[in-house]
Design goal:
This protein has 509 residues and is mostly beta strands. The chain is 3% helix and 44% strand. It contains 2 helices and 39 strands. The strands form 9 sheets. Strands 1, 3, 4, 6, 11, 12, 13 and 17 form an 8-stranded antiparallel sheet that branches. The chain is extended, with a radius of gyration of 31 Å.
Length: 509
């Protein structure tokens, strides 16, 4: 594997700027962001002074090299809004003198050169807005360009030797004035730089792998190996439509990891956390690295003990459903142990649109029947009049058990117009009101703290001599009240005496 690849640096652009081969991690500049790529995701540039800065990166200061990756123009006629209009793919060495790889504005040809000094071009032209694999190798004065695996030899080229006075950049370069210039108007994915010359067969193999990345999907495990430099966390493989029951202790990063393999005939997938005993978050991602609260394709963050739900179709954005490994992270954000179940389900049909097939009055209820998919969640909304825009949820979450579902609303009811919606009927979470100390008074060389609360409540009192740093100490015992009027008398014996400054807080048990 290493003999085939051997990149000095490789930026998969999977929602981050990490160099998967080395430590030349990047920083987004300007409006640079991410977009669906040839392989999962890629960098997106708007053509106007954005890019990915790479630092000085001594191991990229090369005289002979290979550069390869996938590119997609946003416009077939415009390569950049900056500078001379050439669209930068990769540049090493700011201000001039370093090497660069770009698409010429004048004729859409692939070009390399010594920045602001000389260049050599090719017969390879990127003339449309499709994804294309591009590559260039330089060995001495021999330069070969590749477009979609096809080689294009260039005239002999003498660079005169590259010099490196500044950082490298993906999708742009830093001109002598220090501005990001010649930003590529389009997307770049899977960019890699090698300190050796890839053969034509190697370039062809990468192109043939397509959305499998740097190798064919059947043998490519390089990302899995590079993803975990420490202990590999346990990853549980889910079975279609079968819930997995688990408890998260909130220890460590408070996250449980799962994998679900989407089949080739799936057009809809549903990922869900059900019946959590505490607040959970669900993050989902196609492929590695594992998702978290900051790196994900989709995330569900319903409050409190609501279920979490993510549904992905083949036309969903930012990442459409496709066959292969999808990873789920069940993240405990409650701060304490949480029990829950997690499930992944796929269907060969979308189940949309929803069609209401019948409505009728049965005894003292108004009943709706609609088309459904087993395992999909629905709820009913209603209006009092068509002049209102305030749809009110009138049902709980209804999980279909068949291809037709009926739900009935008790009568009488103020509602007259109804619709069926796919998703969860969330319960309203009202956070508890903060505890407020209503008075602090000094009496007989003691401090009296008073506050109000419910008659069945119990409190602990904590104190600290300073807020920077804070050092809360719990006063032994609990404070209760039969009438909801609570008080605590601090005579100094448990809080360091009456003289020093003290701060208090209450904890409801």
């Amino acid at each position: 594997m290493s003999e085939f690849f051997g990149p000095v640096s490789w930026w998969p652009a999977e929602g981050n700027t990490i160099d998967s081969a080395d430590g030349n991690h990047g920083t987004l500049l300007g409006n640079a962001t991410y977009t669906p790529g040839e392989v999962c995701r890629g960098f997106a540039f708007d053509g106007n002074r954005d890019g990915v800065s790479l630092g000085t990166a001594a191991n990229l200061q090369l005289q002979d090299f290979t550069i390869e990756g996938w590119v997609k123009r946003t416009s077939a006629s415009l390569a950049s809004f900056n500078g001379n209009g050439n669209g930068s793919l990769f540049m090493m060495g700011a201000g001039g003198g370093g090497y660069g790889f770009w698409i010429q504005q004048s004729d859409s040809r692939l070009t390399i050169g010594k920045l602001q000094v000389n260049q050599v071009t090719s017969g390879a032209q990127v003339i449309d807005t499709n994804w294309h694999h591009v590559a260039v190798t330089k060995s001495g004065t021999t330069v070969i360009f590749y477009l979609d695996g096809v080689a294009y030899a260039a005239p002999p080229y003498d660079s005169g030797g590259y010099t490196f006075a500044g950082p490298g950049c993906i999708g742009g370069w830093l001109n002598p004035s220090g501005l990001v210039d010649n930003t590529f108007y389009g997307a770049i994915d899977e960019l890699a730089v090698y300190n050796r010359i890839l053969s034509g067969a190697e370039v062809q193999a990468i192109y043939n792998a397509g959305n499998g990345g740097k190798c064919a999907p059947s043998s490519c495990n390089l990302r899995v190996l590079q993803e975990f430099t420490n202990t590999v966390p346990p990853i549980i493989t889910l079975t279609n439509a079968i819930p997995y029951f688990n408890t998260n202790s909130a220890a460590g990063n408070a996250t449980d990891y799962y994998r679900f393999v989407v089949s080739t005939n799936a057009v809809r997938a549903q990922f869900e956390i059900n019946n959590p005993s505490g607040d959970m978050t669900l993050a989902v991602r196609k492929g590695l690295p594992l998702p978290n609260q900051f790196l994900f394709d989709y995330i569900s963050t319903n409050p409190s003990t609501n279920d979490e739900l993510i549904v992905v179709f083949t036309n969903s954005t930012p990442v459409p459903l496709s066959a292969g490994d999808w990873y789920l992270s069940a993240i405990n954000v409650s701060g304490g142990p949480v029990s829950y179940s997690i499930k992944a389900t796929e269907w060969p049909v979308t189940g949309q649109p929803i069609a209401i097939t019948n409505s009728s009055v049965v005894t003292n209820s108004f009943c709706l029947t609609w088309t459904s998919l087993p395992g999909v969640h629905y709820y009913v909304e209603a209006l009092t009049s068509l002049s209102s825009t305030n749809w009110v949820t009138v049902s709980p979450t209804i999980t279909a058990t068949g291809y037709s579902t009926t739900w009935c609303l008790p009568l009488p009811s103020p509602f007259h117009f109804f619709r069926v919606v796919e998703g969860l009927a969330l319960s309203t979470f009202v956070p508890p009101a903060p505890i407020a100390i209503t008075s602090i008074t000094r009496t007989n060389n003691a401090l009296l703290l008073q506050w109000t609360g419910s008659t069945n409540a119990a409190y602990q009192v904590q104190w600290t001599p300073t807020l920077s740093p804070v050092a809360w100490t719990t006063v032994p015992g609990t404070v209760t009240s039969p009438n909801g009027q609570f008080q605590f008398l601090d005579d100094g014996t448990q809080t360091g005496g009456q003289g020093p400054t003290r701060f208090y807080r209450l904890l409801k048990l």
